[in-house]
Design goal:
The complex is a heterodimer of chains A (about 280) and B (about 280).
Chain A (H helix, E strand, L loop, with lengths): L3 H20 L5 H36 L2 E5 L2 E3 L6 E5 L2 E9 L3 H8 L5 H17 L5 E9 L2 H25 L4 H22 L5 E13 L2 H18 L13 H8 L8 H5 L7
Antiparallel strand pairs in A: 1-2, 2-3, 3-4, 4-6, 5-6
Chain B lengths: L2 H22 L7 H34 L3 E3 L7 E2 L6 E5 L2 E9 L11 H14 L7 E9 L3 H23 L4 H23 L3 E13 L2 H23 L4 E2 L3 H7 L7 H16 L1
Antiparallel strand pairs in B: 2-3, 3-4, 4-6, 4-7, 5-6
Helix pairs in contact in B: 1-2, 3-6, 4-5
Classes of the chains: A alpha+beta (about 280), B alpha+beta (about 280).
């Protein structure tokens, strides 16, 4: 999801592309076509940077072999997937995984699901998952309360848009039952969220992630061990319906900084995670 | 104005200048291939401008250092406050103070009735929404540091052995000598079993940050936020959170504290032995 700041950046960055396309006619037939291809290529790269910069930029940095030193003793490795700390000749590699509970969120908002059973089972499922883990890790939940009125306005806006889309689908009579069912599901999810706010529940946003650390006598030994730990975590915690994907690139630095510098407002927290969170 | 905004506007301006030069220059002065080159440069500046939203600090460092190993900072990532109850980091012109508080939870889902599990799940749900500002809750599994325990057992073995020698030299009662020998054997057995495997411990804690123009202002605001959070946690879970101070606080942040040094050396020796065998 692109936030307001992202939209401003995208709109301004698209201007030179549009100008290049419009003004390319003055260059002559062949050169005009080349200019259009260049401009369209730039537009595609802008789109990639906007939606999947966390994949594009680390891949580029890996290719050219760049590594970053973040602070004294701390750095990001060449693979852009671990924070490395050197302590008296020993290397500690720290890796992160996202841990989004999509399944719980959606099921919680579907009225026909037995959410209470899910909540009751959660502590035991969590403990069972931990039994197979014999290395250090941290499970972080960063939560921030959202403004009730803003959250309500946002949900109402989304509901109106979904209702408009659904009405158009019904009028066109071209949509399948599956598509209509999907729209109805979206509508019931939004309605359930609004009902929960009306009942007095505070709207919150959360960022969940897992941090694990491995040690080795060389950087490679530490990162190899870390990779193994991350794979084991993905297997062990899969029973919790979590979306576990490895954090790479700039968000690695953000999560590293969270250990000593959390965002102190909701706006600051939400602006960090429109991509990978 | 923020550095990233200045950088964005500057790169965008360079993109427009290149583009205007390509479009407006007469073909007699600037041939078409040069114009295409100017368009490529304009698009490159445009892409860099867009990327500066997230990568401005990396780009500045890269331009300054022209190296594949980019140093963003050589300073310590954070420092401990004078009182030892907060870590302080610089963020631009501001200071950010972060405080950690341990949440002593000694409950297990497997020992709860279904109703208690449901209540506990709901308590956790309430916990993540008690604070207005962003709060990070963490459950950490770490390897227990048994160095001190092992050392104290060794001390006891040594002192008991000394007692045995003294009794033997002074022809002390045989029964007493046998009793002390039995004690030595017991401590040795404990020592062997303690050292044979690593023990893990699960701890929970919360962290909150506050920023300010001075260190004192940041710490004072963080203290206020921490007090509010601690009373919220206490009211929700019925346990009294404790503020982490000094080394205890550092242990929650630094990766090497998740794996104690003796465990590291044991792991490395074991790995080498496995590789040799």
């Amino acid at each position: 999801m692109t936030d307001e700041e992202g939209i401003v950046y995208l709109v301004f960055s698209m201007m030179p592309v549009l100008i290049a396309v419009v003004a390319s006619g003055s260059l002559g037939d062949v050169y005009s076509a080349i200019a259009i291809i260049i401009a369209l290529g730039a537009a595609v790269l802008l789109a990639l940077l906007n939606w999947v910069d966390y994949l594009v930029v680390p891949a580029f940095l890996r290719t050219i072999g760049v590594r970053f030193r973040l602070a004294k003793d701390y750095g990001i490795n060449r693979q852009q997937d671990a924070i490395i700390k050197n302590v008296n000749g020993l290397y500690y590699a720290v890796g992160f995984l996202t841990a989004n509970v999509f399944a719980y969120v959606f099921k919680a908002e579907m009225i026909d699901e037995d959410i209470e059973q899910k909540i009751a089972d959660a502590p035991e499922t969590w403990e069972r998952s931990l039994m197979g883990i014999d290395f250090p890790f941290k499970f972080h939940v960063l939560s921030a309360n959202r403004d009730v009125q803003k959250a309500r306005d946002y949900l109402e806006g989304r509901r109106s848009y979904v209702e408009f889309q659904m009405n158009r689908m019904i009028q066109d009579q071209k949509s399948s039952d599956t598509e209509l069912g999907e729209m109805r599901r979206k509508l019931s999810v939004l309605q359930a969220q609004m009902d929960r706010i009306s009942e007095g529940e505070k709207p919150i946003s959360t960022v969940m992630y897992i941090e694990t650390v491995a040690v080795g006598v060389t950087e490679k030994a530490a990162t190899d061990s870390l990779n193994g730990q991350i794979e084991r975590l993905q297997v062990a915690l899969s029973s919790l319906d979590l979306q576990l994907s490895r954090v790479v690139g700039r968000e690695l630095n953000t999560l590293f900084e969270f250990n000593f510098m959390l965002p102190d407002t909701y706006a600051a927290a939400s602006s960090q995670f429109d991509m990978q969170g | 104005m923020e550095t990233k905004v200045i950088m964005f506007l500057g790169l965008l301006l360079l993109s427009f200048i290149s583009l205007v030069a390509a479009i407006t220059a007469s073909s007699a002065i600037v041939p078409s291939p040069i114009k295409i080159l100017l368009i490529i440069i304009a698009m490159a500046f445009d892409l860099l401008a867009f990327a500066s939203r997230y990568y401005s600090q990396y780009m500045v460092a890269f331009l300054k250092q022209h190296s594949k190993s980019i140093v963003l900072s050589e300073e310590n990532a954070y420092k401990l406050s004078e009182t030892g109850e907060a870590v302080i980091a610089r963020k631009g012109e501001n200071y950010v103070a972060t405080m950690y508080m341990s949440v002593p939870l000694y409950v297990s889902g497997s020992e709860m009735s279904p109703e208690e599990r449901l209540d506990f799940g709901k308590q956790i749900g309430r916990l993540v929404s008690i604070n207005k500002d962003p709060v990070r809750y963490t459950t950490q599994m770490r390897i227990m540091n048994k160095d001190f325990y092992i050392e104290s057992i060794r001390d006891m073995v040594t002192s008991t052995e000394n007692e045995v020698v003294k009794l033997q030299e002074s022809n002390g009662p045989r029964a007493e000598i046998e009793r002390l020998k039995g004690r030595i054997e017991m401590w040795n057995n404990i020592l062997n079993s303690v050292g044979a495997s690593q023990s893990l411990e699960l701890i929970s804690y919360a962290a909150v940050s506050a920023s300010g123009g001075t260190e004192l202002e940041a710490v004072t605001t963080a203290q206020q936020k921490a007090r509010d959070l601690m009373s919220g946690i206490s009211a929700t879970l019925g346990v009294m959170p404790l503020l982490a101070v000094g080394n205890e606080l550092i242990a929650l942040i630094e990766p090497e504290h998740s794996i104690p040094f003796t465990t590291v050396t044991e792991q490395i020796t074991k790995k080498i032995e496995e590789e040799v065998i």
